[in-house]
Amino acid sequence: MTPLRRWLQAFAVHGVLLVGVAFALYPVLWVAALAFSGSNAPEPRVLPWPSEPTLAHLTEVVGATADDGGETIWIFGRQLLNSLVVGAATALVGVLIAIPTAYALARFEFLGKRRGMGVLLATQMFPAVASAIPLYLILESAGLLNTRTGLVLCYASTAVPFAIFQLRAAFEAIPVDLEEAAMVDGATRLGAFVRVVLPVARPAIAVTSLFAFMSAYNEFILAATLLDDSKMFTLPVMLQRFVGEYDARWEAFAAGALVVSLPVMGLFYVAQRHLVEGLASGGVKG
Amino acid sequence: MRPWRWLVAVLVATWLLPAAARATDRDGRIRLWHAWRGEEEAALAELLESWDGPTVEVLAVPYDALSSKLGSAIPFGEGPDIFVDSHERLGEYHRRELVADVGDAFEDGAYVGEAVDAVTIDGARFGVPLSMKSLALYVNDDLVAVVPGDLEGIAALAETLPEGVVALAYEANNAYAHAAILHACGGRLLNDDDSFGFVGPAAETSIDVVLDLLDAGVVPREADGALVTNLFRSGKAAFAMSGPWLAADLATPEGDAVRYHVEPLPLLARTRGRLQPLLTVESAMLSPSGAARPEVRRFAAFLASSAAAARRAERARAVTARTDTPSADPIVRAFAAQGRAAVPMSTRPAMRAAWEPANKALRKILRGDAPVTEALVEAEHRFAMVMRPPPPARSPTILLVVIGGALMFGAVVLVQRARTRAFREQVRRSIPAWLWVAHAVFVVGVLVVLPLLVGTATSLFGGPPGDVHYVGAANFVDILTARGGPLLASGSFWLTLLVTVLWTVVNVALHVGLGLAFGILLARPVLRMRAMYRVLLIIPWAVPNYVTALAWKGMFHRQFGAVTGATMALGDWLGVTIEPIAWFSRFSTAFTANVATNAWLGFPFMMVVTVAALGSVPKDVLEAAEVDGASRWQRFRHVTLPMIGPSLVPAVMLGAIWTFNMFNVVFLVSGGDPDGTTDILVSEAYRWAFTRDAQYGYAAAYAVLIFVLLSGITRGLDRIGAAAKAKVGP
Amino acid sequence: MVEIRLRAVSKRFGDTVVLDGIDACFPDRSFVVLVGKSGCGKSTLLRCIAGLEEVTEGGIEFGGRDVTRLAPRDRDVAMVFQSYALYPHMTVRRNLAFGLELRKEKRAVIDARVAEVAKLLEIEHLLDRHPRALSGGQRQRVAMGRAIVRRPAVFMFDEPLSNLDPTLRNTVRVDIRRMHDDLGATTIYVTHDQVEAMTLADVLVVLDRGVVQQIGAPIDVYRNPANRFVAGFVGSPAMNFLDGRVVDSTVELAGGVRVPLPEGTPAVAAGKTVVVGIRPHDVRRDPDGTVAFVVELVETLGSHVHVHGRVGDAVFVAAFEGHTGPKRGETLSLVVDRLHLFDPETGVALR
Ligand SMILES: Nc1ncnc2c1ncn2[C@@H]1O[C@H](COP(=O)(O)OP(=O)(O)O)[C@@H](O)[C@H]1O
Ligand SMILES: [Mg+2]
Questions:
Q1: Residue A107: helix, strand or coil by DSSP?
Q2: Per-residue model confidence (pLDDT) at position B730
Q3: Least confident span in B90-99, B458-467, C279-288
Q4: Cβ neighbour number for residue B433 with a 10 Å cutoff
C-alpha cells in the first residue's frame, strides 16, 4: 500500500469514528449544557454550550432539603443513598441467588433442568405490565409496599433470571478440568466451586453485578409506583418531578440527570474491559 | 473479603435505621399528598408552620402520576390520609372507594355554588374546595387599547398588529382549551347521559370557528403551554387564553415581564354565546382511613379556612372558592369572576375516557388530516370502545374442567413415570443438583412465575376495578377483531402490531448496522486511540434509559430543542426562515424521533458484541483467504461475516426482544403522539392498564399476545441461528 | 503405594456402555499404561479410578480398601490432566501449595515441599508467575509438580504429553518414568500412543470399546497379542494381516503363495481358514523366500527402511535394517521368520 493510500485510509477510519463519537456524545453534552444554563426561557441551542453559565440548577438539585417532622434533612443525600443501596442490594441478592443456580445449570444434569430453563426463558418475553399488579399484591401481602426491601424484591424478579443466564454461560466457559483438579487435590465439590470456580468467574460475576446494579439504579416506573415517601425515593423518582406534563423544568431535569448518570457512567467505565470479556464468554446467549 | 463485609454493614445499617425510625413516629402523623409546585408549594409550607396539630408528612407527586399512585396505594391501607387533587377525578375515586365523605371538614355556605356542586356526589361532600382554576383572557396593555367584546373583534384586531405578533395565543389543539369555544356553541365534551358530547352540530361549529382563526393567522398553530407563555411574555401575542399559571410565569423579580391585565373570556358573536372555560376545583379529599380521623378532618378544614385561602391568594394568586375571602389582587379577582362564569368539569368517570378521543380528533382536524365530521364520529367510536360495557360474565366451568383435566392428566403421567426404576434412579441422582437450585426455584416461582400466572389469568377477566368477573376469551376476541371496527383503524391491535414490527425491524437494522460498522473499525489491528474511541462510543449504553429518552424529547422540543435550533441555524445560513417543526405532530417525524433515540441508546451493545465476536475469528482463516486472493471486502463478506454471524444472532435476538418491548422510549419521547399512532404494543397495554379506566384484563390480554408473538419470533430466529451455526461449524 | 484392584467395573452414560466389566489388578509401585484408540474409554476408566466418575457397577479397591463410593479427595490420588488444569487465578506457588493447604498442612511443611518440588522440576524461577505467563512445557511441569508435591499413593496421567512438541515429549516421557521410579507410587498413565505405552509401561492394558483386550508386560503383549486388535495396535509399523488357509505345515495365502509355518507356531487343524499376521520386522530378504513382494514405496528412517508394497493383491509392509532399500517396482522374495494366526470370525489368536 502506498503511503498516500494508507494515509487516506487512516483519515477515513478516524473520520467515521469521530462522527460516531460526536453522535454518541452530543446528547450528553447537550444535557450538560442545559444543566449549566442560567436562562429560564430556553432558546433553541445547537452548540452544546451553556448560556449564562450557572451552577444554580446543580446546587438546587444536589442541595435539596426536606422537612422531616421539624428536622431539615438533606433529602438529595437520602435519595442518592437509597439509589445506591437499592442498586447494590439488587445486585447482591440477584447474583447471590443466581450463582449456585447457574452453576448447577452449567454442570449438572438433573430432572426438570430443561423444563425449568424453558420456563425461565419464557418469562423474559412477558412484558412487565401484566405482572406488575400481581407483584404489587404479593408485596402488599408481605407488608413490603413503600419499602426499599419491596423495591429490591421487584428488581430481583428481573435481575435473577438475567444473572442466571449470564452466569450459566460464564460457568460453562470454565473448563471442568479445573474443578476436577481441585477435587483430586482434596477439595469437596463445594470447596472446588468456592475456591476455584468463583475466583475464575470473577470478571463475569462483576459484569453481571454491574448490570443488575444499573438496572435497579436506573429504574423509575416501578419505583414511582411503589414508593410514596420522599425519604424513600430513588433518584429517578426525584427527577420525574422536573418533567411533569404541565410544567417542565428542563434545566433542573438536566442537572439532575447529570448527577444521576455520572455514577453509573463511572462504573461503566471501570467495567468496560470486562464487559467485552463477559459478553465474549457467551454472556449474551441468554 | 473485607470490602464485602463493609458493604454488608452499610446495607444493614441503611436498612435498619430508617425502618426503626418509621415504626415509632409515623403513627399519629397526617400524610398529605399534593401536586402543587412553585409558589403554591411554598404557600403550603408557610401554612404548615401555623398548623398546631399532629405532624404533617408531605409528599409532592407529579400531577400526571397522582391518580395512579392513589389508586395503587389507598386500597392497601397505604398512601395519604388527605390529598389535594382536581375535582374532576372525584367520580373515579368515589367509584373505586379511594375517597370518603369529608363530614365536618366541609363548612356549609362558605363556598361558591360551582365549587360546591363540583365536590358533591349523590348529595354527599367528597372534598373541601380549596381553589378554582380556569382559563381567562390575558390582555397585553401595550398592544391593546380597547378590548373588543367578542372573539371576532379580537380576530379583526390581528390586521392592526405589528409584524410577528399574533392576536390570540392559546392551545388550540387541546380539548381543555377548546372546551371554552365548544361551550359558547352550546356543546359539551360529555353529555349528562355519559355519552360523548364532542360530536354533532355544536362541535362542528366550534371547530369551524377555530379553523377560521387559524387560517386567518389569528391563532398560532400547534401551540403548547410553553409556546403560549413564551409568546405572551415576549410581547408577541396581544391576547392569551390561559390559566393562573401564566401570571406566575410572567412574574420576574423586577416586576411583570409585560404590562397586562386579565378579564373574563369574551363572547362569540356567531352564536351569541359566551366563551366559558372548564372549571377545575382543586379540593382536599380524604381517604377512607383519613376521613375517620378527627384530626385529619380538622386539618382539611384548616387548609380550606379563610386564612389559608388568603395566604394562598397572596403568595400564589390562587383563586379561592370561598365567598368570604375576596382578594385585593385584580388578577385574582378577574379569575374569581371567570370562575362564576365557567362550566365545572364533569366528575363522572366517563369524563376521563373522553379526553383522549377528543384531543386526538381535534389535533387531526386542525392539522388538516381528516374531515371534521369523520374525525368526530371516529372519536365518538373510540370513546364508545373504551366505555363499552364490560363483556358479560361467563361461567368458568369450561375453563375449570380444562384445567382440572390437564392437572389430572399430568398427575397420572407423573405417577406412571415415578413407578419406573429409571425414574427413581434419576430422582436419586438429581437430588444433589436440586439442593443447588432450590432457593432460586422458590424465589423465581414467587417473584416471577406466580405474578405472571396471575397476570395471564387476569386476561380472562373483565370489568372495572371492584366489579371484576370472568369473561372467557372475550378480551382476546375484542382485541383481535379490533372491537368490531376496521382491522387497521388507528389504535387497533393490528395497526399497533404493524407499527411495532416496523419499529423493531428499523431499530434492529440500525443497531446492527451502526454496531457492525463501529465494531469493525474498533477491531482493526492497528488503531490509534482505540481505548478512547471505545469509551466514548459506549457512553450511550451507560446513560440510564429514561434519562436518554427525556433528553432526546428535549432535543426534539419545538421551542428550545437542539434539532429545532439546527434547522433554524440552517435556515439563517441559507437566508430563509424555516418554521420550527413540531416533531410529534406527524407520524413520520414522531416515529423518526423515537427511532433516533432508540438507535442512539442501542447501538453500543451491538458494537461491543461485534468487537467480541471479531476477536474470536481465527486469524489463519483470514490469512488463508488473503492467500487465496480475496479482496478486503470479499474477506469480510465471505469469511468474517459468516463466522461472526452465529455469535451475533443471539445478540440480535436479545436486541429484538428489548426493542419490541422498549416501553421507555416510546412512552417518554413521543408518548404515542400523534394520536397514539407511534404507540407500540407494550405502551398500548400500559395505557389500557393505567390510563383507560384501569382495564387490567384487557391490558393482560395484550401482554399475553405480546408473549405469544415474541416466543414465535425467538423460535424463528433461533432456527436461523442454529442453521447459521451448522454451516460454520463449532 | 498400593495395589489397585478393579472388579467388573462397568460404566454407562444413559444407554451407552463406555466400560464393560473390567477386571484387573495392578501391583503396588507398578507403572500401568492404559492404551487404546481415542474414544475407547481410557479416560473414563482413569476417572473412575480417581473417583471423578461414579462407576455404574463393580468395585474398586486400593490396597484392599474399598474406595468405590469415596470422593476423589479421600482416595489419596493425584492427577495430571491433558489440559494441565492449572488454576489460572493462582501463582505457580499457590498452584503447587493448594492441595496441601486443603489438607491443612503446616505452612512450614508446605513451603518446604513446594521448594523441594520446584527444585526437582527446575521451575523455581517460575514460582511467582501466573499460569498464563508460562509456555506449554512449563505448564506441564507445574502440573506434574502439583501432583508430586502431595506425595499421593497413586499418580494418574491423562495423555500428559499430547500438547507438547515431539522433542519435548521424549524428554518428559523419560522424566515421568524416572520420577515414578524415584517416588515409588503406583502410576496409571493413559495414552493413545503405543510407542509411549510400550516404553513406559510395566503393565500394559489394551482397551477397545470399553473392554480389556489384554493385560500384560509390554513385551508379552508385543510377542503374544491376544487377538487381532491388540496385534494390530501394538507395534510399529503395524502388523500385516493376510487371509489364508492352513495346508499341512504351511499356510496358503490368497493367490496361492505358500508360507511355511515357522518354528513355535501353534498347531492348527489343516484346512482351517485363518488370518495370518506378520510383523514387518519378522520378514527377511532371501532369494529362497517363497513370498513374492512387489515394492511400491520405500521410506528411509536411517537405521531402518520401511518398504510398502503388495503380496499378491494384499497390501504389505516390510521393515529391513540398514539404510538402503530396494527400488520401486522391484520384486523381492521374502522369508517369514515368525507369524501369528487369528480366527477370522472372532479375531482371537490361535494358540
Ligand atoms: N459425560 C459423558 N456423557 C456421555 N458420554 C460420554 C461422557 N464422557 C465420555 N463419554 C463417551 O464415552 C466414550 C469414551 O470416552 P473417553 O473415556 O473420554 O475416551 P478416551 O479413550 O478417548 O479417553 C466416548 O465415546 C465418549 O463419547
Ligand atoms: Mg481421553
A1: helix
A2: 44
A3: B458-467
A4: 19
C-alpha cell at B132: 378554582
- CA distances from residue B159 to B154, B166, B216, B217 in whole angstroms, order as listed: 10, 10, 10, 10
User: Within an 8 Å CB–CB cutoff, is residue C113 touching chain A?
Assistant: no
CATH architecture for the domain at A73-280? Orthogonal Bundle (1.10)
Is B99 within 8 Å of B127 (Cβ atoms)?
yes
3-state secondary structure B88-155: HHHHHHHHCCCCECCHHHCCCCCECHHHHHHCEECCEECCEEEEEECCEEEEECCCCCCCCCEHHHHH
Q: Do C45 and C34 meet the contact criterion of CB atoms below 8 Å apart?
A: yes
Residue B215 has pLDDT above 70, yes or no: yes
Element (H, E) at B553: helix B545-555
What is the rounded distance in angstroms from the CA atom of residue B180 to the CA atom of residue B587? 28
C-alpha distances in angstroms, C143 versus B218, B459, C147? 88, 61, 7
Asked if residue A14 has pLDDT above 80, the reply is: yes
More confident residue, A208 or B722: A208
Q: Is the CB of C47 under 6 A from ligand 1?
A: no
Amino acid A277: pLDDT: 57
What are the residue boundaries of the structural domains of chain C, listed by start? 4-227, 240-342
| Extents of the domains making up chain A | 3-54, 73-280
Secondary structure tally for chain C: helices H, strands E? 8, 20
Q: Which residues contact B505 (CB under 8 A, 6 or more apart)?
A: none
Is the Cα dihedral C207, C213, C218, C222 positive or negative?
negative
Nearest CA owner, ligand 1 atom 2? C13
* Residue C207 alpha carbon, nearest atom of ligand 1: 21
Asked whether the beta carbons of B133 and B332 are under 8 A apart, the reply is no
Flag the least confident range among B76-90, B147-161, B458-472, C214-228. B458-472
How confident is residue B529, by pLDDT bands cut at 50, 70 and 90? confident
Report the amino acid identity of residue B105. A
Highest mean pLDDT among B134-143, B447-456, B675-684: B134-143
Question: Within chain C, which residues score under 50 in pLDDT?
Answer: none
Sequence-separated (6 or more) residues with CB below 8 Å from residue C236 = C194, C195
How crowded is the C-beta side of C270, counted as CA atoms within 13 Å?
4
| ipTM value for the complex | 0.87
| Cell numbers found for residue B468 | 371484576
**Is the Cβ pair C87, A186 closer than 8 Å?**
no
What's the pLDDT score for residue C329? 87
Query: Residue B148: is the preceding peptide bond cis (ω within 30°)?
Result: no
Are the beta carbons of A240 and B65 separated by less than 8 Å?
yes
* Pocket-testing residue among C12, C18, C55, C194, ligand 1, by greatest number of atoms within 8 A of Cβ: C18
Percent pLDDT > 70 in chain B is 93
CB atoms within 10 A of CB B463: 18
For residue A40, is pLDDT > 60? no
Least confident of A170-174, B185-189, B619-623, C144-148: B619-623
pLDDT of residue C1: 62
- CATH match for C240-342 among 1.10.760.10, 3.90.950.10, 3.40.50.10380, 2.40.50.140: 2.40.50.140
Contact at CB, A276 and B11, closer than 8 angstroms: no
Q: Which residue of A has its CA nearest to C14?
A: A109
Mind listing the domains of chain B with CATH numbers?
24-131+280-326 (3.40.190.10), 136-276+349-386 (3.40.190.10), 495-693+709-728 (1.10.3720.10)
CATH superfamily for domain C4-227: P-loop containing nucleotide triphosphate hydrolases (3.40.50.300)
Q: Name the nearest CA neighbour of A226 among C78, B225, B69, B74.
A: B69
Predicted model pTM: 0.82
